[in-house]
Amino acid sequence: MSEQSIEFTASLLKDNGASLELSQEHWLKERQQEARFQLENNSLPTTAEEEWRFTDLTGLYKRTLSVPQADLPVDSAVVRSLVIPEALSSIVLVDGVYSPDMSFVDAGKTKIRVSNLEAALQDESLTSLLKDQLNKIDGDGISAFGEMNTALFKDIVVIHVGSGVQSFETIHVLNISTGKQTFNHPRLLLIAEKQAKVCIFEDYVGIGGFEYMTNSVSELSLAADSEVIHVKLQRDDDSAYHIAHTHVGVDNGASYRNWSISVGAAVSRHNMVTRQRQEGGQIDIKGLALGHGKRIVDTHSCIEHTRPHGESTQVHKTIAGGRSKVVFNGKVKVHKNAQQTNSSQQNRNLLLSARASVDAKPELEIFADDVKCAHGATVGQVSEDELFYLKTRGLDDAIARNVLNYAFAKEVIDDLPIQSLGGVIESYIKEQTKT
Amino acid sequence: MISNNAEVILNAQDLSASITGTQILKGFDITIKAGEIHAIMGPNGSGKSTFSKVVAGHPSYSVDGGILEFRGKNLTDLEPDERAKLGIFLGFQYPVEVPGVTNGAFLRLAYNTVQGARGKDELDPLEFDDYIQSKLNLLGMDAEFLERSLNDGFSGGEKKRNEILQMAILEPTLAILDETDSGLDIDALRVVANGVNTLHADADAVVLVTHYQRLLNYIEPDFIHVVDGGRVIKTGDKSLAHELESRGYEWILEENRSSVS
Prior knowledge:
The complex is a heterodimer of chains A (435) and B (261). By secondary structure, chain A is of the alpha/beta class. Chain A has helices spanning 3-13, 26-41, 58-61, 76-82, 117-120, 124-133, 144-152, 384-391, 397-413, 419-432, and strands spanning 87-94, 97-98, 104-105, 113-115, 157-161, 166-177, 182-184, 187-192, 197-206, 212-222, 227-235, 241-250, 255-262, 267-276, 282-291, 296-305, 311-320, 325-334, 342-351, 357-366, 372-380.
């Protein structure tokens, strides 16, 4: 434990969490208090811990952050420019709190129930879902930051896709951070019932150009034969700290497809645990992380096969330029009875500069004996042959390198199910990998 | 077509070049004028492919001496892209596969970069689609080619057609085609040769670097140079190719050795 992290934790805990008058919801209060208790007794991580060895948060712990001011106005034109055209519903959170004015849910068109915490608690069935599922998707994988989110969230976005509701309509959950020296703890719970289909776009963006910390937890529960497409785009402000948790539970025959793209923040950490809860199930994860300037971008992923016949694929690509530091820890765990698991993991890292670094650690823990598990990790530079070829066609060094850097990343975003995002992410890549 | 008054496009005199300290070109001489088609032939390891890479500006080779000029301008200090903008095109023996770069988008970028540098208007995607259609037709290529990644998973014939397609849109003054015939079946060879013949005009020059005489049945050269030991040891007209076909290289190499000693 470090003094700084203890002080930092204490300063955050001055906040009281959900500001609603929720006295009647004892279970919720208890859960927040339990998390608070855990947090008080387990300080936030430092580089002394194996899991945080490469990601130094001292800079964060030195900051004095505060609760964001409520109801800060956000220019509606800015929001409009951010919401993707494919979104049938858009849920806008400003500094972690649902903004009804800026959100748009077409109740006539959508059969998907989208709610904030206040509304969910007025609905019996949503309340019981919250009770059953909140903080339950992955109980033991939660880190101190996850506990912090549970202790301090102000609101929860609840998305409920009923049994057999099949529409890949996109729900855009837009998390906007405005605050100067503030923190926010966005919380998302998505429940896909049997044979349900949904596409969710989880988006983090800073608009003030100020330092802040986002500490999110997203929990997704996939019942049997459901299909969830989940795109997470982290485009926080270049000075921001972004800590995120994604916890996913997958039942029999369900399919979970994830794209996680990190192109922002000064320091970011994505903890992702995807767990098979029943026999079968398909998990496909694609990741792209851009190291730019002095950024630290850290992805810790764990795919857990707990039952037989599960399938998973993972492709994680990173580009490390400038003095950035890129970390990938990709765990694939195959439990003893998870026979006939078929899993593959690929990690490709492109190093653009001598002062950037990549720490890649694929970790396979296999306890079953009848499984197929492939994995590979590479760190490389731009191919001189490709570079020369493009130059002989008139492209100068900088443009040729930019084209090749984008080409490297393109595999991850090629089949993005949200078309308009392709161009958005392309411009981030091209801008951040310029030489 | 030979014309004595034609402009000198490429002039190499006593050119020497090396890679990682090993000298490959040792006093290479060649003069190429507008309108001409030259063939550079020679056994494996003679230096003919190195010559084409040196002209294109491959960074692994350093020019250690001699003259290398394009239309009177010294080339040796120019980057490969600057040479391309001036009008030098290298058709690769092994076109590089570049996964993730869409062929069509790349061709448009190359076109706009090179033609833009020559003061021509850039084309937007729709205009470029129209422009490239006739070039695709010339090479019997389907527009579907443009959607694929650059050379990625292309067959040998497709790669070579794609090289000639790039030559067609970049409109070089000097096209050096390095072993363009290797890996081609007879039909693909005809298409590629027809493309080169159609594109060749009085104002530009073509250099065919080839191991075999076969290509020269389809593209008729004005001059044939035999290279050995990093320099041109014999220059002749197209009849030399037939002689090489029937007698092989050995007699020329012998002839050269005895004249040297």
